[in-house]
Amino acid sequence: MNKRIRRIIAVVLAVSAFSTIEPTKYMNITGITKAYASSTVIDNFQVNKAATDNELNLYEDEDYEDTTNFKASTDTYYVKTSSSSINFTFDTNSNYVTKVFKDDSKTGTPFDSGEEINLDKGTNTLYVRTYKESKFDKNNVKTNVIEEYKIVVERKTNSTNDVQLSKISLDYGDISFSKSQTSYDVDVNSSVDQIEITAKPSKKSYTVKIAGDEVTEDDDYQETVDLRKGANEIEINVTDDDGNENTYTLNIYRGGKSNTTTDNSDIDTTQDKIYLKDLKLNNGDVELDYNKQVTKYNVNVDSSVNKLTIKAEPQDDNDTVKVNGGKVDSDYEKTVNLDDNSTKEIQVKVKNSDGEQRIYTLNVTRGTVSQNSTTNNTSTDAANNTSTNTTSNTTTNDTNTNNNSTNQTTSNNTVVSKWVKDTVSDKWKYYDDKGDQVKGKWFYYINDNHWYYLDDQGNMKTGWLSKDYKWYYLDENGIMQIGWVNLSGTWYYLNADGSMRTGWLQEGTKKYYLNSNGAMQTGTATINGKSYTFDTAGAMSN
Predict the structure, then answer these.
(1) Torsions phi, psi of 48, nearest 5?
(2) Residue 313 lies in a domain
(3) Is the domain of 133 the same as that of 191?
(4) Is residue 11 situated within a structural domain?
(5) Do the Cβ atoms of 277 and 264 come closer than 8 Å?
C-alpha cells in the first residue's frame, strides 16, 4: 500500500475515533450553530394586525396549512395577511431585551413590542432577536444575539386576494356578480326604502358582514338595509381566520344616480373602519351628500343661518359621538353657532370601545368670506413678538428678527415666507417664498426648527391630528410634539417622527404600556391574557 493511501486511511480513522469519543453536542467542525436556543427567554409571542391588534396565525411552512404555536425549537415561522401593517407583542425575561427588524442588515432599524411595522406588498422577511440587556449594539444589531427567529410575512394585495364571496343577490335591482369584481352600481326605484342583500362566502369558515352587521348561515347570509333617497354605499366585508379581508361595495342609487356632488368626495381609507350611519344638517334642510367613507365636506349656508344642528348617528349604538369635543344628546344631535362671513371647521368624531375612531370634518361657510379682509401678520416665533397690521392694496413691511431679513411687498397684500393670522377665522396660515399658502401637508419651519401641519384650508392645526393611519399631537402653538407629553393628567408618548406610540415601550430598565388610545397604563391591567402591574409613573413592576 503506498504512503498516500495510508495517510488518507489514517485521517479517516482519526476523525471516526474523535466522533466516537467526543459527544456530538460539543462538535462544531463545520462552524455551523443553531439559530435558536434550547430554552427561550421570550413569552406570550404574537403577531398582530396593527390596526385592530387581532392576532394572526403562525404557520409551520409556506404552504400555510398547519398552524403552530411559538416555541424555541422552531426558528422560522410563516404568516399571511392582507393588512398593510403589523406589530409583534411579547414578554422578555428581565435582564434581556428583544427587538424586531425588517431586514437582515447590521444597521437595521429596531422595533419594540407593540410598535407598528409597515409591510411591503409581497414577501416580507423579519427577524426577532434577543440580547442581554447591556449587550444590544445599535451599530451592529447582528452581534451578541442570544436567540434569533425568522418570521416570513406574505402580504396579499387586493388583486391576489382569495378571500371571496361566492354570491351576492338583491331582492330589488339587477347585479351581475363575479367573485373578482368588488364594486357594483345598482339603480332602484325611489319607492324602494329597504333592500334585502344576500352575500354567501366561498368558504363556510369565513366571516361576512353586511353594512357592519354579521350574517351567518343560520340567517341565509341575508341582511335588510335601509335606503335613503339618492346614493347609498353599502360595504360587504368577508374575512378569513387569519384576519385577511376583502371588501365588496354596492353603490345603490334610490331613484337613479344623484346629480349632486361633494367638493371633497375622495374616499378616506386612512382611518379606522368605524362609521356614522347618517349625518344630517338642520334636519336635512342644509344639503349634504353624505357618504360614510368620505370624511371631508365643504358646506355653504346663507348668512341668515346662524346655527347648525348636526345629527350624527353612529352605525353601532354602543359607539360614542362627539361634535367639536362635546358629546351629542340622546338624539345624536348637537348645535354649533356660526359666525357671519366666515368659515368654521366642525369635527364629528365617532369612537368605539376598542379605541377605533373616525373623524368627519365639515368646513361650513356662512355668507361670503372676503379674500381682501384685514389680516394681522405676526411671526409665531417666540423670539419675535412684533406684529404689523396690514390692509389690502397697501404696503406691508414685515421684519423677522430671527433671520434679520425684511420682506417688503406692495399691492394686493402679497406676503412671502411669513405666518399670517386670519382675523376672521382666528387661524394661523403660512405663505411660502412664492406667496402661496401652504395647504394640506406637513411644514418644517426652519426659523424655529419645528414641524407644523397646515390643513386643506391652509389653517395651522393644533391638538390631535389623524394622518396616514397615525395620530400626532400639536401643541397650542402648532408645534408637533415628541417624547412624553401630559394632556389633562394623562401621559402619552410620541415617537421621533411625532406619531403616537401604542403597545410596549422600553426605556432603559423600565417598561411601559401604552393602550390603544395612546394613554399610559397604570395600576393593574390584563394584556393579551396576562396580568401586569404598573406603578403610578407607568413603569411595570417586576
Answers:
(1) -130, 155
(2) no
(3) no
(4) no
(5) no
State residue 135 phi and psi, 5-degree precision. -105, 0
* Domain total of the chain: 4
pLDDT tens string 245-272? 888 989 888 876 543 334 334 567 778 8
What's the one-letter identity of residue 158? N
Does any domain span residue 308?
Answer: no
Give the DSSP letter string of 19-74. HHHS-GGG--TT----SS-SS-SEEEEEEEETTT-PEEPEESSTT--SEE---TT-
| CATH number of 444's domain | 2.10.270.10
Shared-domain flag, residues 182 and 91: no
Is residue 506 very low, low, confident or very high in pLDDT (cuts 50, 70, 90)?
confident
CA atoms within 13 A on the CB side of 113: 23
Helix H or strand E segment including 250:
strand 245-254
Q: Is residue 427 part of a domain?
A: yes
State the residue range of the domain holding 84: 42-159
Reported as type and span, the H/E element at residue 11 is helix 3-21
| pLDDT tens-digit readout, 7-23 | 445 544 444 444 444 44
- Average pLDDT of the chain, as a whole number: 79
Residue 99 scores a pLDDT above 90: yes
